[in-house]
């Protein structure tokens, strides 16, 4: 589920802003920050760090699933994934700030589904780490009984 949420970030808009005076809309996706109808001389801003962090987080989540025999490795991968997800959210904030400066500063932009999915992934990652720790505690208590 976590990997799907992070991969969905690649295909959904993260942030957008509409300026009614100029009738321009700026849209932030995982790969670019650009105007919907670009005017002459406005090049899109590359936002590849968002895409790279999202793909890396999804890959770590899948790898974490296959480490079920070694719960300590799962916990380490969960910590790495936490940092990658926080980095994705931070990059989204950074590039939305860049987009705020591209249009009328007085009108705020709106975050879209692509921004909230990493937050869901962060919650799922924290829950997974909690349950992995509970499993490890249970196994250690069973070892004491033998």
From TrEMBL:
Keyword field: Membrane, Transmembrane, Transmembrane helix
Origin species: Hymenobacter swuensis DY53
Residues spanning the membrane: 45-66, 78-95, 115-132
Pfam family, one: DUF4293
InterPro entries: DUF4293
Protein name: DUF4293 family protein
């Amino acid at each position: 589920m976590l990997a799907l949420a992070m991969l969905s970030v690649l295909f959904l808009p993260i942030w957008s802003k509409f300026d009614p005076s100029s009738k321009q809309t700026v849209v932030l996706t995982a790969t670019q920050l650009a105007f919907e109808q670009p005017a002459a001389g406005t090049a899109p801003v590359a936002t590849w760090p968002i895409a790279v962090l999202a793909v890396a987080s999804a890959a770590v989540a899948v790898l974490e699933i296959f480490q079920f025999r070694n719960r300590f490795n799962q916990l380490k991968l969960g910590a790495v994934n936490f940092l990658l997800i926080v980095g994705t959210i931070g990059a989204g904030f950074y590039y939305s700030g860049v987009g705020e400066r591209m249009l009328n500063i007085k009108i705020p932009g709106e975050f879209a589904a692509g921004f909230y999915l990493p937050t869901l992934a962060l919650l799922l990652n924290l829950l997974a780490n909690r349950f992995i720790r509970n499993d490890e505690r249970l196994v250690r208590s069973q070892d004491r009984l033998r």
